[in-house]
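Deliverable D2.4 — example input (structure tokens):
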């Protein structure tokens, strides 16, 4: 059996085909953010209602109220940099522009709610992480046009570390979700199924409301969901089960959407690139 330190080094700095996989993440992340800006929650409401509802707080509280034209321009900047990032065009510049502009857009929009806004924060962290590596070294217009230099061993290690960071971020996201349920409600939350059952009755999808005539389904669903959240981290770190657990996570989210109407598509659509993709010959 390989020593623990050797396994950690391999996971952090020697993931296979790291540059090609980081390029796949770059392309996927750019498309996800582009879709979020075009189809998601960032509509003109936030540009028009800023003077009434914008209440800045936190580290970026110095961000001023944006008028409708400025808010629209910010959305255009995010969309343009997301598209450029996805295509790998002027990658060094476009990734930085995307990370900064989407951070401001996401922060500004969050200040209208008065509550925590963290359901898409992973996109901010991943966009910032891309700035630290050469995600345009493979599968990019920069590479096609000859605008990139040959990748070094250090570039490969950096790409591997960034992949590990994103994978651990996802795993810890699930882990804290499972732990928080245990801390807040104990084993009752995992064994009763009451919370998902009641939510589905009032706000769930059509299939979910149909299934509410069998409450035991929600007990099983809740218990398996809690176990999945707690087990994702160790299973992800075990190389042999990484792809399988990512596929299970996608099925988990699809099931939540079909039953409860809760969609985290902007998280799990990144899983094929982040956990499952392996270039031929890798």
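Example output (designed residues):
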């Amino acid at each position: 059996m390989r020593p623990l330190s050797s396994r950690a080094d391999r996971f952090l700095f020697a993931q296979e085909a790291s540059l090609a996989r980081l390029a796949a993440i770059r392309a996927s992340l750019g498309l996800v953010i582009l879709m979020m800006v075009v189809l998601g929650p960032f509509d003109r409401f936030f540009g028009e209602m800023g003077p009434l509802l914008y209440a800045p707080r936190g580290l970026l509280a110095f961000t001023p109220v944006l008028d409708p034209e400025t808010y629209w321009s910010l959305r255009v900047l995010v969309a343009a940099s997301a598209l450029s990032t996805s295509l790998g065009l002027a990658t060094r510049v476009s990734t930085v522009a995307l990370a900064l502009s989407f951070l401001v857009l996401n922060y500004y929009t969050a200040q209208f709610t008065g509550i925590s806004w963290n359901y898409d924060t992973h996109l901010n962290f991943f966009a910032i992480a891309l700035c630290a590596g050469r995600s345009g070294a493979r599968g990019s217009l920069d590479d096609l046009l000859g605008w990139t230099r040959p990748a070094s061993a250090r570039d490969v290690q950096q790409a591997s570390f960034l992949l590990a960071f994103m994978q651990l971020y996802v795993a810890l996201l699930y882990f804290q979700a499972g732990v928080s349920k245990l801390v807040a409600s104990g084993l009752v939350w995992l064994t009763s199924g009451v919370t998902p059952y009641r939510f589905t009755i009032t706000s769930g999808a059509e299939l979910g409301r149909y299934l509410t005539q069998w409450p035991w389904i929600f007990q099983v669903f809740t218990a398996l969901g809690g176990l999945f959240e707690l087990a994702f981290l160790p299973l992800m770190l075990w190389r042999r089960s990484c792809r399988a657990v990512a596929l299970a996570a996608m099925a988990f989210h699809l099931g939540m959407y079909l039953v409860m109407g809760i969609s985290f598509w902007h998280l799990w659509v990144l899983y094929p690139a982040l956990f499952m993709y392996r270039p031929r010959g890798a």
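The chain has two domains: 17-151, 169-282.
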